[in-house]
Amino acid sequence: xxxxxxxxxxxxxxxxxxxxxxxxxxxxxxxxxxxxxxxxxxxxxxxxxxxxxxxxxxxxxxxxxxxxxxxxxxxxxxxxxxxxxxxxxxxxxxxxxxxxxxxxxxxxxxxxxxxxxxxxxxxxxxxxxxxxxxxxxxxxxxxxxxxxxxxxxxxxxxxxxxxxxxxxxxxxxxxxxxx
Length: 179
Description:
Elements: E1 2-8, H1 19-34, E2 40-45, E3 48-53, H2 60-67, E4 75-82, H3 86-96, H4 98-103, E5 106-113, H5 122-136, E6 141-142, E7 149-155, E8 160-163, E9 167-168
Parallel strand pairs: 5-6, 5-7
Antiparallel strand pairs: 1-3, 1-4, 2-3, 4-8, 4-9, 7-8
């Protein structure tokens, strides 16, 4: 399991054919703000940018703080990138979000499955993971309308991303796009 930062682009998705120009400028702005933290890979896919540390000494806490101030980002999450297998996703979610799950009273699971070859559909992922979380944390109850904690699972082409509540980003358009 490796920890990364997952960014949601927000308004950039509205720009159609020139979206890549805005995404490239956003990545350029992030590289400028994070260059002194070590080697970082930026992977853009489906209105999401994954910020993956290549060096083990990259300070993800500091990267997360700096990214929150960059315009063009709607939402930010620290997440675990794991193998796309429910036998890996379930224990990874319980381990990665353990502190949040221990202190929350209510939760829900939100799943997105862009890899249509994954054997379970999104509702089945939610039910399976939710059941296992309830087994591991019996004090929790499910509240789909107003949960304290949302356990997010995104099954993508290469990984499954697991994260808790998303933090709001600075929003707007990236600096340098005159948008």
